[in-house]
Amino acid sequence: MEFELTTEQKDIQQAAREFAEGEFDRDKAIQLEKDHAYPRDIWKKASELGFVGIHFPEEFGGQGMGVFENVLIVEEFCRNDSGIGTALALCDFSSEIIMRHGSAEQKERYLSAVASGRMISAGAFTEPNHGSDITLMDTRAERKSDHWLINGTKTFITNGAMADFYIVLCQVEPDASPTYRGMSTIIVERNTEGVDAEEIGDKMGIRMTSTAEISFSNVEAPLENLVGEDKKGFYHVLEFFDESRIEIAATALGIAQGAFDRALEYAKEREQFGRKLSDFQVTRHKLADMATTIEAARLVTYKAAWNFDKGRIDPKLTSMAKYLAARAAVTVADEAVQIYGGYGYFTDNEVERYYRDAKISEIYEGTKEIQKNTIASQLIKKGK
Amino acid sequence: MDILVCIKKVPDTADAEVILRSDGKGIEEEDLAFGINEWDNYAVEEAIRLKEKEGGKVAVVTIGTGDDEDILRRCLAMGADDAYRIDSSPFYMDDPYSVAKGLSAFAKKHSFDLIMTGVMAGDMSYAMTGPLTAGMLGIPHTTLVTSIDVKDGNISVTRELEGGLEESVRLELPALLTIQTGINEPRYVSIMGIRKVRSKEIPVLRAEELGLSAEEIGEQGAVLELESLERPPEGKEAEMISGSPDEIAEKILEIVKGVV
C-alpha cells in the first residue's frame, strides 16, 4: 500500500493550485454569483492549460491521464473557490458516457471540443417525475427511418441553459420489461429545432452553474447520435454515475478543505475574552473534528479514484466516497460559519458561500439516501 | 541563444507565521510552503520567451537537495529544455559566495550566451549571487533588469532605478542579468508541460565533479557567516488609543491639531 502521490501527481496538484491562486478572485466570484454567470474566461484558460478533460484520451484532446488526476485538480479548484471550482469541474459533465461508449466520430466531434474549451456538455437524465428513480423515462425517442424523434421534458439539468449538447436518457421502448431495458442515450445539440432550455431560477448554491429545465418537442436527432448500445442507456448512465460520483466527491472534498482553511486562519487571528479563538478548547475540538472528517473523506475519495483507474468498478466504494465527502463538505462548512460567528453569515467572508455550495453535493448525482441504498445493496448482495 | 537560469527554492513567508529556530540561525520550516523564488520565476519566463523569439535552448540549475527538484520540473514544464541539480550537501548555503562558486563552476563547463538569476532570493535577500557569479566568470553583468532586447550579439536592457527612472544599458554577450519582478507575466504550468517532463532526466552533479573542494565551498571557506536571525525591536512610533469611540475621536483630534 502506497499513500504518497507520484511526483507527476504532485506537480499536477501544484499546477492546479497555482492556477486557482492566480485566476480565482474572491470579489470576482462574489460578483459572478450575484449575476448567476458562468466563469467563462477562467474556463477557457483552464481548458487551454489541459485542466479540462485530463482523463480524456490524448487522441481526442485529453491528456490521457486518470480519474485520480482529475480528482486532484477538482479538489484544488473547489478548495480555492467553491463556486468557480464547481463550475469548472462540471463543464465536461457526462462527456464520459461518450468517452466510454461513444463512436470515434462522436469522440472526435464532442470530446475534443469539450477538452479544448469549445463546448460544454450536460447529461439530461432527471425528469419532473423521475429523480432518484430513473428506471422509467417519460422522454420518448422513436426510431424513424433516418432520425430519432424525441419528445419530453428534463429538469434540474446541470449546465442546461448553456451546454452545447446533451446526452439525453430516453425511453425507446416503453413496453420493455423491466422498463429500464428499453432506454437509450442519445446526443442532442442545444441549437436543434424543438429544444428549449429555461433556467429554473434562484437556487441555494452553485449559482455560477446553470440548472435548467429542457423540453424536447418533436426534436430530430440523427440516428448516429445514439451513444453506445441501443436499449443499454440505463446501464451506460449507471456506469457513468460510478465514475462521476468520484468527481462530485472531489468537489465536496475541496469545498470542505477550503472552508476549513478559512476557519483555521480565522480561529488563529480572532480574539475574544482576551484570547485567540484557537486557544479555546471548544474551537480546538471543532477544528480537530473538521480535519479528521476531511482526512477520512479524502482517503475514501482517493481510493475510489485509484480503484476506478485500475479498471475496476465498485459502486459501493464510489457511493461511500460521494456520501462521506458530501457529508464532510456540509458539516465542515457549517462549523466554519460557526467559527466565524456573525462575520461568517456575510458574503464577504466566503464561508457562507461554501456552506450553500456544499449542500448540493448531498443531493445531485444521487442523494445521500440513494448512496446508502447502493452501499447496502452491494453489502447484502455480496454477503460481506 | 543558449540561456542558463539559476533558480532557488524558498519558503513562502509573505502570509505565513515565521518562527525562529531555537539556535537563532534559521526559521522553522516545517509548516511553511516552499516554491520557486518569485524573482527566479520571472527570469525563467523571460528566458523561455527569448528562446521562443531567438531560438536556442534554456537550461535551469539549482544547488539543492532532492526535495528541490520540483522547482526544476516546474521550469521544464514551463518550457525549459534541460535542468540540472548541484547537490547542496557540501555547500554553506547561507553564503552567496559559496553558492556563486558552485554556479560559476557549473556555467564554465557549458557555453551559455546569457545567464539569468532573480534580482534576489525571497529568503535571504542578499542580491549578490548573480553579480558574484558574473565576477567569477569574468563576464559583464547588470541588475534589476526590466526588459531585454537582443541585437547582433549584444543585448540592450533597461534597469529599474529609484524615483521612477529607468536606465538603458548595452552589454556584450556572454553576460549575466539579474531579473526584476514584473518584467513579464509568467505563464502557468500546463498539464501538457507536465507530461513533457516525463521524458526528462535531471542530472545531479557533485561539487567535486565541478572541481570544487569541500573546504572552498563549505563553512570554512565562507566569506560571510550567518550569526543570528532576530526580530527587530518593536518601535515606539505607534500609539494605541483606547477608550469609548467619543474619547478616541477626541484624542485623535488633539493629535491632529498638534501636527497642523
Describe the 3D structure.
The complex is a heterodimer of chains A (384) and B (260). Chain A has 384 residues and is an alpha+beta fold. Chain A folds into 3 domains: 7-115, Butyryl-Coa Dehydrogenase, subunit A, domain 1 (Orthogonal Bundle), CATH 1.10.540; 121-232, Butyryl-CoA Dehydrogenase, subunit A, domain 2; 235-382, Butyryl-CoA Dehydrogenase, subunit A, domain 3 (Up-down Bundle). Helix content of chain A is 50%, strand content 15%. Chain A is built from 12 helices and 10 strands. In chain A, strand 9 and strand 10 (275-276) form a beta hairpin. The mean pLDDT of chain A is 96. Chain B has 260 residues and is α/β, with parallel strands linked by helices. In chain B, 29% of the residues lie in helices and 23% in strands. Chain B has 7 helices and 11 strands. Chain B has helices spanning 38-54, 69-78, 96-108, 129-137, 191-197, 214-217, 245-259; strands spanning 3-6, 9-11, 34-36, 58-64, 82-87, 114-118, 141-151, 154-160, 166-172, 175-179, 204-205. Chain B is globular, with a radius of gyration of 22 Å. The mean pLDDT of chain B is 94. At the A-B interface, helix 1 of A face helix 2 and helix 5 of B.
The CATH architecture name of chain B reads 3-Layer(aba) Sandwich
Q: Low-confidence parts of chain A lasting 5 or more residues at pLDDT below 50? A: none
Q: What percent strand of chain A?
A: 5-15%
Widest β-sheet, arrangement of strands of chain A: 1-4-5-8
Largest sheet of chain B: 9 strands, mixed
* Total beta-strand segments of chain B: 11
Instruction: State mean pLDDT of chain B (0 to 100 scale).
Output: 94
* Mean pLDDT reading of chain A: 96
Total tally of structural domains of chain B:
1
